[in-house]
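Renewal narrative, Specific Aim 1. Our central claim is that a sequence can be written position by position from structural information alone. The example that follows is taken directly from our test logs and has not been curated for this report. It begins with the structure tokens describing the chain, in the order in which they were read.
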């Protein structure tokens, strides 16, 4: 039987998930209803063509307890909205950065079954990464329900702690932005040696697309594929030498640590519960 799902928040992440769910090949059998709870109808408008999607402005308007409620709002408004959902007997899934399981349990007494999920925006094209963390009350059936919700949206993995989720946030949660930034920087470099904007953008985009697809399907690790492109004293070696001399690995490590620290800052409440 199809799932009913309420999505709280339809911004960047909420709409990426919703588009992903609506376009799954088995979407019609997997999901029977989506209620999108959002302050403004405009964000939900593009999805309302699908008869399974309805916009509501508050949880009080939900006609029944959905099987699953997914929270996709900014972490700082969680405290304000969670009390509105206490009475629901649904499985709760939150994608908010930083907030620990203990934080939710503090606002959702008696204990609710809860999952912290960390997806990334490529779920919208079924190429995401989704990390999942269960609280103590989650049953095997509810775990299966959660997997039914996310299967097909990308690579799913269960993790063991809030800390794991914070670390994954810094890698795959924020990671698409790092990749977009790299694409932008390669395009800008192409412009700097004389290509027009459109050609530069295509060269960068197709290079990333081809190389990441190749790395994904190849039996060789990226380090070996890199060596295949790098002849001694050749053009690639000259470029990589600059990246190494200027500490590209260190830079990426520092960026990831900054994201991890920020995720921990956003979850500071965990210290007081
Ligand atoms: N973006 C990512 O790549 C990403 C990745 C992983 C996790 N996350 C997490 O996902 C959550 C959402 O992030 P986002 O990037 O999607 O932010 P966003 O684009 O700002 O979306 C948040 C949405 O929540 C809506 N909203 C505000 N108050 C609400 C309420 N009381 N009830 C229902 N909806 C409400 C906002 O509506 P209005 O705009 O109409 O005010 C907005 O559309 C965050 O906790 C973030 O940590 C994001």
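The sequence written for that structure reads:
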């Amino acid at each position: 039987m199809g799932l009913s799902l309420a999505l709280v928040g339809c911004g960047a992440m909420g709409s990426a998930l919703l588009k992903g769910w609506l376009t799954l090949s088995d979407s019609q059998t997997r999901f029977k209803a989506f209620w999108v709870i959002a302050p403004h109808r405009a964000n939900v408008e593009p999805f309302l063509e699908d008869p399974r999607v309805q916009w509501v402005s508050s949880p009080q308007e939900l006609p029944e307890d959905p099987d699953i409620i997914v929270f996709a709002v900014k972490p700082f408004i969680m405290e304000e909205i969670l009390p509105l959902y206490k009475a629901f007997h649904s499985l709760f899934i939150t994608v908010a950065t930083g907030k620990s399981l203990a934080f939710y349990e503090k606002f959702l007494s008696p204990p609710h079954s809860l999952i912290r999920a960390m997806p990334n925006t490529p779920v919208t094209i079924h190429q995401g990464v989704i990390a999942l963390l269960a609280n103590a009350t989650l049953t095997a059936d509810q775990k299966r329900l959660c997997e039914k919700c996310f299967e097909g949206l990308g690579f799913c993995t269960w993790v063991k702690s809030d800390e794991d989720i914070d670390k994954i946030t810094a890698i795959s949660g924020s990671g698409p932005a790092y990749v977009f930034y790299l694409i932008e920087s390669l395009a800008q470099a192409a412009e700097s040696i004389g290509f027009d904007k459109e050609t530069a953008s295509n060269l960068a985009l197709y290079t990333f697309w081809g190389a990441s697809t190749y790395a994904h399907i190849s039996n060789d690790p990226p380090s070996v594929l890199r060596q295949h492109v790098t002849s001694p004293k050749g053009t690639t070696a000259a470029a990589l030498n600059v990246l190494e001399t200027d500490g590209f690995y260190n830079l990426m490590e520092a960026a990831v640590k900054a994201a991890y620290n920020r995720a921990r800052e956003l979850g500071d409440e965990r210290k007081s519960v």
